[in-house]
Amino acid sequence: MADSRGENLSIIGVLGMFSFLTSLSGSSTNLAIPKIAISMNISSSAATWIVQIGLITTAILLVMFGHIGDILSKNAVFLAGGIAFLIGSTITGFAPDFITILIGRVIQAIGAAMIMANSMGIVTQYFPDNKRAEALAMISMFISVGSISGPGIGGFIISVSSWRWIYWINIPLGILVLWLGFKFLPIPKESWAHIKEVTKGANWTGQNLFTIGIILFFLSGSFFQSGRDHLLMGLAFFIVGGAITVYSFIQDDKSNLPWIAPEVLRNKGFMTSIFALSLVMLVNAISNILLPFYLQSYNGMSPFASGLVIMLQSVMMLITTPFAGVLADKINRELMTVIGLAILMFSQVGYAFFPDHLDMMKIIPPIVLNGMGIAIFLSPNNALTMGMVDKKLSGIAGSFNSFARTLGMTIGISFASSALFFQLPGVTRITPAVGDKFVQAFYNVFWIATAISGLALAVVLIRYLKSRKEPVKKDSAKESA
């Protein structure tokens, strides 16, 4: 445990600031996609890979870095991630072409994976259970501020200058946070021989299978985006990649030194929370990737104005998160997740009724409700997730939680872009000339998002109903005794 409240706050500050930077970069990149597509002379669908490749890389590496954090040092892996994130931001900012942008984004994502895989584990390491939801909520607030700042700052930068500044801005801020991190997060001194010793027996076969499976799975999206002529090839990559990914978990479970502890995968309560989280992040990513196309590319709104509209979701998250964190520690956490997902599902219906022109009275409410629903769900679900595993497994549990979050976002972005452009054969760039075809395709994607959020709601509702019966069973057992 941390020795003082001041030290607690310092640790939260370091974790939160890096969460802020990764969130800032992610939300800015989403907003910048239309401008980068024009700048690099690439199609709108190709530009979405600037977002996708980062999320795919993060998803592939999260569990591995969580495991390494458990056996070596969470603090060391976290801070090394900060360094990689800065290097990747620098390369992306100075990239002369599309390929170099992708390389920079991969390096940036490696750093983000190291940060995300160990953040929740560090919180569990330093904070007791009765303070954990509040600590996680504070970090969520940093993420919300980053999400807010991304569209606002990013939109302003893109409007008055080059999109490259959305990556360059990470450099001075990141250096400052790294300095604080090395000050407040002690790193144990380990010899290179010891590091090789504790990692040599790791299940690298499982990691390689997982990497291949994830890459094939998400490459299917590029075929789906190419239209109906490539549907069979897309389905082949989707099925083969999905099968290899599933098999990698089976192989890992049977290995001598698995990346994911078997007791984590077999923990039904933990996996329920993880599954619900992945569905929620999938749904949320759909609006994040499609709204810039709707506002900027189709309706001609400036990047700055569209950024202000989109950031309303994060503003609502920022306002709601502190209350959600406190309430999660005081009342039923399962009930809070049900309320959050009911609101989220209602917001997706709102997106499906967006007007074909800029009518803010119809556009703003779904965005606000989306942010409120996500905030009410996240803090209690995160607290439930981390409270279901032993502290010695907090690193792998936290990284698996981040993996589910990132995988959901990655699938959401890939699905949204694939589903949109699959309905628009021959369209390389969204413009007002696409007309009603774009609007109808936009609606169809959000009706599917409504169904997915309904599935997530059903999952957490069943969990809540089961939690209400458990005390009754315990009381009955006492009376029988």
Describe, in plain words, how this protein is organized in 3D.
This protein has helices at 5-40, 44-47, 49-71, 74-94, 98-126, 129-160, 165-168, 170-184, 192-199, 204-225, 231-254, 262-265, 268-298, 303-330, 333-351, 360-386, 394-422, 436-480. The protein has 481 residues and is mainly alpha-helical. The model is unreliable at 472-481 (pLDDT under 50).
The SS-based structural class is mainly alpha
Largest sheet: none
Low-confidence parts: 472-481
Kindly provide the radius of gyration, computed on alpha-carbon positions and rounded to a whole number of angstroms: 22 Å
Question: Percent of residues in beta strands?
Answer: under 5%
Helical proportion? over 70%
Shape: globular
Number of helices: 18
| Helix-strand topology string | HHHHHHHHHHHHHHHHHH
User: For the terminal residues, how far apart are their CA atoms?
Assistant: 39 Å
Total strands: 0
Q: State mean pLDDT (0 to 100 scale).
A: 81
